[in-house]
Specification:
It contains 2 helices and 10 strands; from the N terminus they run αββββββββαββ. By secondary structure, it is mainly beta. The protein has one domain: Sortase, Chain: A (Beta Barrel). The relative contact order is 0.23.
């Protein structure tokens, strides 16, 4: 069940389809993760072997800022979470802007490939992808946005994501002329060997955003990173574009 790209649905209401989409998404990603434990990286639900990059797919130019040496514990865990905000109606996300870390990128819808969310190709490193078969950003549930941290030759769209701090603003421009405003609640580096899909992807009716990229140490032999940076943000407002 995919997102309604027509923008149908009452503003501020909760579309029951979103709840079913969230459940289906959770089951798909949990199954992908469990499969990944048998041969893939523990982030099998987001891009195939080893996480975003399979063997030989990329390597770090330099270590992303704030990434090396961080553990699976919370990097910037919030003292509290934001109060639930009324969900927005469905609309296709077009762009993501995180001014505090200099991220400004086009968003493209991505589906599943080989049981995993297919991120944008390395040929478009400045583009981030949102999981189009789950809730769109601003709607009820957790919207997932993925992006590469680097390529073989340059930094990519989410290179600076690990430096974001609690309270930072994340804006998502949508095709209905609104901007969904999110506030960061937590930033974590999750080791792939201990990846908890239910915890990372768990979704209720509260509108949230999950930003995910590679992190940790880069294993040159396996050509993959040891962890993933996971940013959790809550919908805190909206405004005209």
């Amino acid at each position: 069940m995919g997102a309604d790209e027509t923008g149908a649905g009452a503003p501020g209401g909760t579309d029951p389809r979103r709840t079913w989409a969230a459940v289906v998404l959770g089951l798909i990603l949990l199954a992908a993760w469990l499969f990944g434990q048998g041969g893939q990286g523990a982030l099998g639900g987001l891009g195939g072997p080893g996480g975003f990059g399979g063997p030989g797919s990329h390597g770090p130019l330099t270590t992303p800022p704030g990434v090396r040496g961080l553990s699976a514990a919370a990097v910037d865990r919030p003292a509290r979470v934001y109060a639930p905000h009324a969900p927005l109606h469905d609309a296709v996300p077009l762009r993501i802007d995180i001014p505090s870390v200099g991220i400004h990128a086009k968003l493209v819808g991505r589906g599943l490939k080989d049981g995993a969310v297919d991120p944008p190709p390395y040929s478009t490193p400045d583009v981030a992808g949102w999981y189009r078969d789950g809730p769109p950003p601003g709607a009820a549930g957790a919207a997932i946005v993925v992006g590469h941290v680097d390529t073989e030759t340059r930094a990519a769209v989410f290179y600076g994501l690990s430096t974001i701090r609690r309270g930072a603003r994340v804006d998502v421009a949508r095709d209905d002329g609104t901007v969904a405003e999110f506030s960061v609640e937590a930033v974590e580096v999750v080791q792939k060997a201990h990846f908890d899909a239910k915890r990372v992807y768990g979704s209720g009716s509260r509108p949230e955003l999950r930003l995910i990229t590679c992190g940790g140490d880069f294993d040159k032999a396996a050509q993959t990173y040891s962890a993933n940076v996971v940013v959790v943000a809550a919908l805190t407002g909206s405004r005209p574009a």
